[in-house]
Amino acid sequence: DADDADVTVDVNGQRGVCVGWQEEGQMYLVQTFEGLLVAVPEANLQIHEPAAPQDGGFDVPWVEGAEYDAGIAEMITERLVQRGYCVIQTTMSSHDRAAAIDVAEEGRAFQRMKQELESGYLG
Question: Comparing C-alpha atoms, which of 87, 41, 85, 35 is closest to residue 64?
């Protein structure tokens, strides 16, 4: 909110996705995986190559509130076709993540589609 606009937060060591450029101040806007939107000088940024999902990493980052991106949709679809799953790293606060897990746990009755139908459904 507006009261938080000029709050200083230590995000050293956090990871996220670059979502824009702030002309004023000459900084990159980064959405952290903890749900913070921060302005970061280029000198303080590092490229992060995530580990493979089986090693605790992820396939695709998902930025909360981002517009539809055909490239991300294609990456997700490719992983689903190749492996039957895709690990997506969100940009949510710990509180929001816990709430999402609670909702997902309520829907545990989901069952995977029969494999002979998957290719026709997913393409």
Answer: 35
Q: What does pTM read for this prediction?
A: 0.68
Helices (H), the chain: 70-83, 94-106, 115-122
Q: Residue 27: in which H helix or E strand, if any?
A: strand 27-32
Q: What is the distance between the alpha carbons of residues 39 and 37, in angstroms, rounded to a whole number? A: 7
Q: How far is CA 119 from CA 76, 77, 84, in A?
A: 14, 11, 11
Q: How far apart are CA 16 and CA 58, in angstroms?
A: 12
CA distance 87 to 53: 6
pLDDT (tens digit, 9 = 90+) per residue, 34-74?
989 999 999 999 999 999 999 999 999 988 777 777 888 89
Q: Is 22 helix (H, G, I), strand (E, B) or coil?
A: strand
Instruction: Give the end-to-end CA distance of the chain in Å, rounded to a whole number.
Output: 42
d(CA 81, CA 48): 25
